[in-house]
Amino acid sequence: MKYVLVTGGVVSGLGKGVTASSIGLLLKSCGLRVTSIKIDPYLNIDAGTMSPFEHGEVFVLDDGGEVDLDLGNYERFLDIKLTRDNNITNGKIHRAVIDKERKGDYLGKTVQVVPHVTDAIQDWIERVAMIPVDGQEGSADVCVIELGGTIGDIESMPFIEALGQFSYRVGSGNFCLVHVSLVPVLSVVGEQKTKPTQHSVRGLRGLGLTPNILACRSTEPLDENVKQKLSQFCHVQAGNIITLHDVSNIWRVPLLLKDQKAHKAILKALNLLSVVREPDLVDWTSRAQLCDKLHDPVRIAMVGKYNGLSDAYLSVLKALLHASVACRKKLIVEWVAASELELETNEETRMAAWDLLKGADGILVPGGFGDRGVQGKILAAEYARENRIPFLGICLGMQTAVIEFARNVLNLQDANSTEFDPETANPCVIFMPEGSKTHMGGTMRLGSRTTYFQTTDCKSAKLYGNVTSVDERHRHRYEVNPAMIKQLETAGLSFVGKDETGERMEICELPQHPYYVGVQFHPEFKSRPGKPSGLFLGLIAAACGQLDTLIPNSAHANQPQSLTKKGITIMSNGASGMKVHQNGNSIKAANGLLNGVYANGNGVHI
């Protein structure tokens, strides 16, 4: 097994996750099998109890692991399925060490950071690196490890010590260190400054780790004299100093590394240069180029609770991105704070939020927890239903759609979720009986579960390729009340997807609406570049008037349909990267393309 370690210096938020994902993709394109590990130094066991404002979205894996969002980047770039153990935290390591101490496994020894904690870290890395994640038998060839945080952080020290020991444990020909650092430009002098990177590398070397490659974040490509200076002071060959300057879209980062021959530097350090092929990124290159050429916009209103940090909805944004490019549209996300749609908000703010909502081609209400902004989500669902605007509700978004329908169609004005009103007389959404009200971490309905379609004559089944069932990832404590299903369906809300018992609602639709779909699961977690989620593809297609072409209402609707435009073919039979079943057989998803995401009016590329 070969290992590539990615560390960061100077400041956080430099893009270590994207860099690690891009390195993995580059190595995979050379014919190697790649797996990934993310190390988070915080004391939490996992990311499940952390606020989206604190740490971005919680990414959910097939096995129910609630992990850092960077594992989502790994899965999307490498098209792999990771496990909860691929995310290492200080909490997990210390719990494992304490559990062994309580069992007496240390035979009376004094348990210390060195060697017990550091050994536990190394053993964990070696064990997890051997787990196949690409659907093939046997272990991967290369494991890319990202160390979260910044060199010098006190909570990272056990991991840095362990990784220093690990580099000697596996041998120099099996270990490559890529250090991502910042080369700022001071506006006063306009000069690229190397001193922050020099200090970062000096600190790294002082902790026992020597970088093989420097990946320097900057606004513009590094000047040649700057590279020479960094080489001299950081003891890194000039040819191994890579510029990670700002690019037009995230999909250009692997190409940036390839153009600077970063793969050759890594392969040389790992003694693999003579056994691999040249990287094949032809398709990736065409997708990255297409990103910048799309100009016809599709506007999607994101009615969320955590709009202050776009990373809180990272996978949703990426799923919209994958679907929009499949429809040859430039995605524009209109950020609508759910609470700003409510009557309690001051009029000017409320009117601005409603203007954004009404100007959108489609509406997406993502998941969330707590009652803040719920009334705004309900109002958004009502507006989409009454005005026949394409709508997709995910998790809480589906639940608020059900509440809105009960209030305004069934005329149950006090209809609510017991999450927000435990005493409601008409509980449309209830706490799941197997959940825990005393322990928050890892107690939800998590991971991949099978949804069974009750009919194939519905939009969602057709978007999944006319299958009988589909596996998607879940993360929720509340569910639609089974006791109210008959009443809701009689009034016109169809629950077309249910779990294996038939008692848990997974997908709802309004059959007479152009596109009004709610799902209890999170389809965004399995969307991939080139394999857009079917439900997101449906939303975008409906928003830009292409849904009838994608799933035509004809006698041949059950046959795979293709949407061809300007040389790009999008297949509707299983358009997402999820596992789908048809008569017990797996079927493959079709390819789409990538696109850039543009936030409303702020010029931010996500």
TrEMBL record:
The Glutamine amidotransferase domain sits at 310-540
Catalytic reactions on record: UTP + L-glutamine + ATP + H2O = CTP + L-glutamate + ADP + phosphate + 2 H(+)
Give the EC class as a word.
ligase
Mention one GO molecular function.
ATP binding
- CTP synthase N-terminal domain residues: 2-272
- The portions of this protein that span the membrane are none
Free-text function comment from the UniProt entry: Catalyzes the ATP-dependent amination of UTP to CTP with either L-glutamine or ammonia as the source of nitrogen.
Report the protein name in the record: CTP synthase
Organism of origin:
Papaver nudicaule
